[in-house]
Design goal:
By secondary structure, the protein is of the alpha+beta class. It is built from eleven helices and ten strands. It has a six-stranded antiparallel beta sheet with strand order 2-3-1-4-6-5. Strands 8-7-10-9 form a four-stranded antiparallel beta sheet, with helices on one face.
Length: about 300
């Protein structure tokens, strides 16, 4: 997996945490709480956010939503999944600490099951670890790392899980990705410790939450055909762009309406007649828009006889 590929998110918000701690002489987030949280006995409501790829989300939802329904019922946690049509989705888990740990355990074991199933068809012998990505407000990441990395080192050593805090904030947000990987049991222990840190050090100031963007697929046009190339721009042939746009944008508007995709055509850059086209929307919208653009180009090219 490439760097920055895996992102995870625990924003832990102690809703009314002090109220539930009032039976202590001094309601402070100290050692007493740490022992309670790790036993899952303290009834503090938390919110943890995970960043998942579409495939992982599909596994959590299950056929007709059966898996996520079972997870909600058995853990007692609220599990919300952000809207689709993005390559990444945010899964928000809210509830008392023990409910959250149960939900996490179910997710981690489900991912392990997926890994085992995918290995039955492959020659690989070593089992890859389960990986989860939390999204954590950047203002809490310092406490999670600790002075000179002491806290994160302690969490790694005591749980056996790998923990990495991303160096950069996620786009248009004040949150960072925290990637946790290991066996399901190591991950559960690790999440418990992260929850303790986050309860002891609430976020400072306002947090701008990360919201995944819809997929955008740039398209490459060559020889009257459109090709999608990830991570690159679409550069149609300068004498064909007009036929895609049409008079006063009629053709491009038609394609937008028929496909339901957003289609942006950039202005030509100075000293170049090339124009970038970016198509955004659900995978189905994008492929329909590509098909319509392709058909438009093909008819134009064949009409002209040759490029």
């Amino acid at each position: 997996m490439g760097e920055g590929d895996t992102i995870w998110a625990p924003s832990v918000l102690p809703h009314g945490a002090l109220g539930t701690l009032s039976h202590y002489a001094q309601p402070h987030f100290g050692r007493k709480m740490e022992s309670k949280v790790s036993e899952g006995g303290l009834n503090v409501t938390l919110t943890i956010r995970l960043l998942m790829h579409g495939k992982e989300v599909g596994s959590i939802i299950g056929k007709k939503g059966e898996t996520v329904k079972k997870m909600r019922e058995e853990s007692g946690a609220r599990i919300n999944i952000s809207e689709g049509n993005c390559p990444e989705r945010i899964v928000t888990i809210t509830g008392p600490t023990d409910a959250i740990f149960k939900a996490f355990a179910m997710i981690a074991y489900k991912f392990e099951e997926d890994i085992i199933n995918s290995m039955s068809n492959s020659p690989a012998t070593s089992k890859p670890p389960v990986t989860l990505r939390l999204v954590v407000p950047a203002s809490q990441c310092g406490s999670l790392i600790g002075k000179g990395g002491s806290k994160i080192k302690e969490i790694r050593e005591s749980t056996g899980a790998q923990v990495q805090v991303a160096g950069d904030m996620l786009p248009n947000s004040t949150e960072r990705a925290v990637t946790i990987s290991g066996t399901p049991d190591a991950i559960i222990q690790c999440v418990k410790q992260i929850c303790v840190v986050m309860l002891e050090s609430p976020p400072k100031g306002a947090t701008i939450p990360y919201r995944p963007k819809p997929a955008s697929t740039p398209v490459i046009f060559a020889g009257g055909q459109a090709y999608t190339i990830q991570g690159q721009y679409a550069i149609p042939h300068p004498d064909l762009i007009g036929c895609i746009i049409g008079r006063q944008g009629t053709k491009i508007n038609e394609i937008r309406q028929m496909s339901g995709a957003q289609i942006k055509i950039a202005n030509a850059t100075e000293g170049s007649s090339e124009r970038q086209i970016t198509i955004t929307g659900t995978p189905a919208n994008i492929s329909l828009a590509q098909y319509l653009i392709n058909a438009r180009l093909t008819s134009e090219v064949t009409g002209m006889g040759a490029l």
